[in-house]
């Protein structure tokens, strides 16, 4: 019987080729989107789940209470050691100071090889490897890092640094030079770090190594007195003892803060435990992807599958009239309703099976682009991904039931006598009202996605084109790996000789940067620290000219290698309670215990993304902190200029690998997640529109076939071609307008909520909605118009002969 069902299903699908192709494309695209959404969501939900007892692992994070509350996924350097000594609540405690974009050098066969490690290196306590499950290939992680200047590397790094033919045991004892400062001895080789982790470092050295570094930041982090500030890479992890709750640890932190932090009612830190499972998702503490975005992605994938199923139902019920006599004959010959239902479900199952194979192929084709867009390492290998295989089975089954259930019941429910007489009417198969509802449902989804796409695109364009308060075009950022007076003077002199370089500045960070040093300060003769923090940027006297910053009062900084003078922004002056910015000129300000005179007020500029408000900020000179060289260049010959910059830089820093970045690309990293979301929603919106148009094309074909004789009568009675076209098109235009009336408020609410995540954002306006509905109407007219014009131009004699 099953074989008979399949054979008949195959013949019916072959007989109705256009119906089959439309449904295959629609279901294939919708299911492909669902597969991609499932894979992306599953990838992110599995971050750091491979660690043993992961439910007992927590990160200590900081809730900083000043004038406002801010959140940092880091803690003061001494916190981990003090917590370990004072409390017996944790089974293990480990500090981890992480440094990204670090330069490593090794000698191999008398050749000096240089490597830039994007994920950098982590300085950790030995207990780090008792908390996290990073297996060793060679050596013992707990004893290997008992001494300073030892390092553990992954197998991948060992192969890259020392050659693929070098046995792993022979790597032990070899030397890696870190930032041309510290020599680290390889004490062990780790297994390669899994992709799904927020601890991506592939090199680990002992925390005690920090004490011997030249870098002031590293020396400060290793100090037992560095409670006054928080470095964003300074993290502390604990593994609670069995039976100890996170709440019980949170209760001891207030007393801990009083003992070490010296809080005041206006300024204090609150330390909290963050579960390891939340690290990847909590944006307040640096999480990469918020769960609400994953939920949205999953819902979009589900909605597109539902859209394809609605399309299938619409076309299947429209086809029911053609199969009425077939049903009547089967029932007269003794066919039961259940057998007819099974026959139609077999046809649906065969179609869905082919669509599933098509969807899997489409998803695999799109996977390289998905991995590139989202910077992921997703695999769709069914033999290594059991959940994906299970999802495909469940998805296919649900689509068969959802898409095939209602049309099957409609067909199986025909009365044989009525069917054989050809008296089945529209109402008995659901009629046009049902199909109108289905078409409206499809276009509600499509138009909502189109509106979301337009709003996100407009906000991204606004973020890129709005006045940031400084110049970001034609500015190249070069690293300064060794900020000595001699190196900076040499680099400045040689770069100044290049014709394409107009101005340059040495600094710690660009005006808008992820690097912001937030710290407390004292103003003038006030005895206590201000209630708000200030962002400190170390810059030279050319900073204002290079980045186009504007002075609103006072003068620029004088050349100096140390802290002597300060510039503050307008926000700082306002929050200090000054009536005019000029009042601050000549006053003393003390930042990080370094006093200086305020000599100028800078016009406010965005030092963070548009997600954040412009914060209090000060600029001062400090040559040892200059790790960037910013150059304003002439764009007439960019390749030649970049080549000249590389030659000059390599001549001064031969021990370091060269790199550069344009400032506008650097700022673009602020909106990386939004850009990723935009690409995906744009793709999904296009697919939703395509599925809707396929369904619309199939439906208008059916409508034209049903109204062929009516069209002939109208033309014989004098109706013009335009009148006939309008009679056919107007009902579909009305459906699109009804869909827009539903989609607009839903999408408007969603986008209004999304825009609230930006302090500076566009306003929702009528133009976005008009463009969405106008574009959808134009697309509808193109799809419907082709069939309408064909029907309107048909010879009425031929039309009247149609049964």
Automatic annotation (TrEMBL):
Localization: Cell membrane
Domain of life according to the entry: Bacteria
Chief place where the protein resides: membrane
Keyword annotations: Cell membrane, Membrane, Transmembrane, Transmembrane helix
GO (cellular component) term, any one: plasma membrane
Keyword Transmembrane helix: yes
PROSITE patterns: PROKAR_LIPOPROTEIN
Keyword Calcium found: no
Transmembrane segments: 21-45, 293-313, 349-370, 390-414, 434-456, 680-705, 732-752, 758-784
Domain ABC3 transporter permease C-terminal positions: 299-414, 683-796
Membrane topology of this protein: Multi-pass membrane protein
Domain MacB-like periplasmic core: 20-249, 445-607
InterPro entries: ABC3_permease_C (IPR003838), MacB_PCD (IPR025857), Macrolide_Exporter_MacB (IPR050250)
GO terms of molecular function: transmembrane transporter activity
Protein name, per record: Macrolide export ATP-binding/permease protein macB
The species this protein was found in: Fibrella aestuarina BUZ 2
Lineage: Bacteria, Pseudomonadati, Bacteroidota, Cytophagia, Cytophagales
């Amino acid at each position: 019987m099953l074989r008979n069902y399949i054979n008949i299903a195959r013949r019916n699908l072959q007989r109705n080729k256009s119906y089959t192709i439309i449904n295959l494309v629609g279901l294939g695209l919708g299911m492909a989107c669902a597969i991609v959404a499932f894979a992306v969501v599953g990838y992110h939900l599995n971050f750091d789940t491979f660690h043993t007892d992961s439910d007992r692992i927590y990160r200590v994070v900081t809730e900083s209470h000043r004038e406002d509350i801010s959140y940092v996924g880091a803690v003061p350097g001494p916190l981990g050691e003090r917590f370990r000594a004072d409390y017996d609540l944790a089974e293990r405690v480990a500090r981890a100071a992480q440094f990204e974009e670090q330069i490593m050098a090794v000698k191999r066969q008398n050749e000096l090889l240089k490597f830039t490690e994007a994920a950098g290196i982590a300085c950790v306590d030995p207990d780090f490897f008792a908390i996290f499950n990073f297996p060793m290939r060679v050596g013992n992680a707990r004893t290997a890092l008992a001494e300073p200047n030892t390092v553990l590397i992954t197998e991948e790094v060992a192969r890259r640094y020392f050659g693929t033919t070098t046995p792993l045991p022979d790597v032990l004892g070899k030397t890696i030079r870190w930032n041309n400062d510290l020599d680290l001895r390889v004490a062990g080789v780790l297994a390669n770090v899994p992709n799904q982790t927020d601890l991506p470092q592939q090199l680990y050295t002992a925390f005690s190594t920090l004490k011997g570094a030249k870098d002031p930041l590293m020396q400060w982090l290793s100090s037992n007195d560095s409670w006054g500030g928080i470095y964003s890479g300074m993290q502390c992890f604990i593994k609670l003892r069995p039976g100890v709750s996170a709440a019980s640890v949170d209760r001891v932190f207030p007393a801990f803060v009083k003992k070490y932090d010296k809080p005041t009612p206006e300024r204090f830190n609150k330390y909290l435990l963050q579960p390891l499972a939340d690290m990847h998702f909590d944006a307040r503490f640096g999480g990469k992807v918020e769960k609400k975005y994953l939920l949205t992605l999953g819902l979009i994938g589900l909605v597109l599958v539902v859209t394809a199923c609605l399309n299938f139902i619409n076309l299947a019920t429209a086809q029911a009239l053609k199969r009425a006599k077939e049903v009547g004959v089967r029932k007269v010959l003794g066919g039961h309703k259940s057998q007819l239902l099974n026959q139609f479900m077999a046809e649906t199952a065969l179609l869905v099976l082919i669509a599933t194979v098509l969807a899997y192929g489409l998803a695999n084709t799109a996977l390289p682009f998905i991995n590139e867009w989202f910077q992921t390492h997703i695999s769709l290998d069914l033999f290594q991904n059991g959940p994906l295989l299970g999802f495909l089975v469940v998805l296919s089954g649900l689509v068969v039931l959802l898409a095939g259930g209602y049309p099957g019941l409609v067909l199986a429910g025909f009365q044989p006598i009525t069917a054989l007489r050809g008296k089945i009417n529209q109402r008995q198969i659901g009629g046009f009202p049902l199909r109108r509802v289905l078409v409206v449902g499809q276009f509600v989804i499509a138009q909502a996605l189109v509106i979301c796409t337009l709003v996100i695109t407009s906000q991204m364009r606004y973020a890129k084109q709005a006045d940031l308060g400084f110049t970001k075009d034609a500015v190249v950022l070069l690293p300064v790996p060794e900020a000595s007076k001699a190196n900076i003077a040499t680099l400045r002199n040689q770069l100044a000789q290049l014709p394409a370089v107009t101005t340059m500045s040495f600094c710690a960070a660009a005006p808008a940067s992820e690097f912001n040093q937030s710290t407390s300060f004292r103003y003038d003769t006030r005895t206590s620290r201000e209630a708000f923090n200030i962002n400190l940027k170390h810059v030279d006297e050319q900073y204002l000219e290079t980045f186009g910053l504007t002075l609103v009062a006072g003068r620029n900084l004088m050349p100096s290698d140390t802290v002597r003078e300060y510039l503050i922004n307008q926000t700082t002056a306002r929050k200090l309670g000054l009536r005019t910015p000029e009042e601050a000129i000549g006053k003393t300000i003390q930042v990080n215990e370094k006093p200086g005179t305020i000599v100028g007020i800078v016009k406010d500029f965005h030092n963070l993304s548009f997600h954040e408000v412009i914060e209090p900020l000060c600029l001062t000179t400090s040559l040892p902190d200059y790790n960037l060289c910013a150059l304003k260049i002439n764009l007439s010959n960019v390749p030649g200029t970049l080549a000249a910059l590389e030659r000059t830089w390599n001549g001064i820093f031969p021990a370091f690998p060269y790199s550069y970045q344009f400032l506008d690309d650097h700022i673009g990293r602020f909106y990386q997640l939004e850009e990723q979301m935009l690409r995906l929603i744009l793709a999904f919106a296009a697919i939703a529109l395509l599925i809707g148009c396929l369904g619309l094309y199939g439906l208008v074909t059916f409508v034209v076939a049903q109204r062929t004789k009516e069209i002939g009568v109208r033309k014989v009675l004098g109706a013009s071609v335009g009148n006939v076209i309008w009679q056919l098109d107007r009902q579909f235009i009305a459906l699109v307008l009804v869909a827009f009336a539903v989609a607009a408020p839903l999408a408007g609410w969603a986008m209004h909520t999304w825009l609230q995540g930006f302090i500076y954002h566009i306003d929702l306006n009528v133009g976005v909605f008009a463009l969405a509905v106008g574009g959808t109407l134009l697309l509808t007219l193109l799809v419907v118009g082709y069939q309408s014009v064909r029907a309107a131009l048909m010879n009425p004699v031929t039309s009247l002969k149609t049964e």
